[in-house]
Specification:
seven-stranded mixed sheet, globular, 11 strands, 2 domains, 2-enoyl-CoA Hydratase, Chain A, domain 1
Length: 259
């Protein structure tokens, strides 16, 4: 399944693949390091909104084609189209940065993850990188601002000092440095990021969902213990809770994901 014309009719720039309860969304412009133009941004928006509305899909994995880049940011040769695209104000110039989904998201990063591409990775809940991954706010060199959530999400993920270091210097860091900062949660061998992201996504999709979604919402909202309690208590009557407790009582103890 694909979406998004790239100049010529029929050329796909975003591929969408269902894998049971996991949806894989792949930016497919490897010839330009998966940079995003207006049609690609629209295709990303369409894919993410469809995912959020589909009760059969529980986790989204976002990645880039070709192995050389997750996403190198906005296509600066067509940058005006990103902000002029219908719906850009509500969804974000890069397509999805202003969309708040209700379900888990994982970025599988190989190669360049730069500028607006870093903002897309930060939009995801979790980032799995392979050892070739590099990260940076390289748009600093050309005077291009972060307008897809980078100034808001990056400090929450890596802390203010680390975020300002990246934002102000435009430095490019490797996967090991990103792991030390907390920007990524795991570093895996070259070419293994998508497989590992899918392994985690399938595990997440297999858990009882009501409490998971409520806990995720509370963590992202950061709106205090009373709001947390309200969301959590609303899940106590979910049938999956009584089913889970019965499984526990009978000795069913699934192991956690492998480290």
């Amino acid at each position: 399944m694909g979406a998004g014309p790239d100049g010529e009719a029929g050329v796909v720039t975003v591929r969408v693949e269902r894998r049971d309860r996991v949806l894989v969304v792949t930016i497919d412009r490897p010839q330009v390091h998966n940079c995003v133009d207006a049609p690609t941004a629209q295709a990303l928006e369409d894919a993410v909104r469809a995912f959020d509305a589909d009760d059969g899909q529980r986790v989204l994995v976002l990645t880039g084609a070709g192995g050389r880049a997750f996403c190198s940011g906005a296509d600066l040769k067509a940058a005006d189209g990103l902000t002029a695209r219908p719906g850009a104000a509500s969804s974000g110039p890069m397509g999805i940065s202003r969309i708040e989904v209700s379900k888990p998201t994982i970025a599988a990063v190989s190669g360049h993850c730069l500028a607006g591409g870093l903002e897309l990775a930060c939009w995801c809940d979790v980032r799995i990188a392979d050892e070739t991954a590099t990260f940076g706010v390289v748009n600093r060199r050309w005077g291009v601002p972060l307008i897809d959530g980078g100034t808001q999400r990056l400090p929450r993920i890596v802390g203010l000092g680390n975020a300002l270091y990246l934002i102000e210097t435009g430095a490019v860091i490797d996967a090991a440095s990103a792991l030390r900062m907390g920007l990524v949660q795991e570093v895996v061998p070259q070419g293994a990021a998508l497989d590992r992201a899918l392994e985690l996504a399938e595990r997440i999709a297999g858990y009882p969902q009501a409490s998971l979604v409520a806990d995720r919402a509370s963590a992202l909202a950061g709106d205090g213990p009373e709001a947390e309690a309200a969301r959590g208590e609303a899940t106590l009557t979910a049938p999956e809770l009584s089913e889970g407790l019965e499984r526990y009582r009978t000795g069913d103890r699934p192991p956690p994901p492998r480290p």
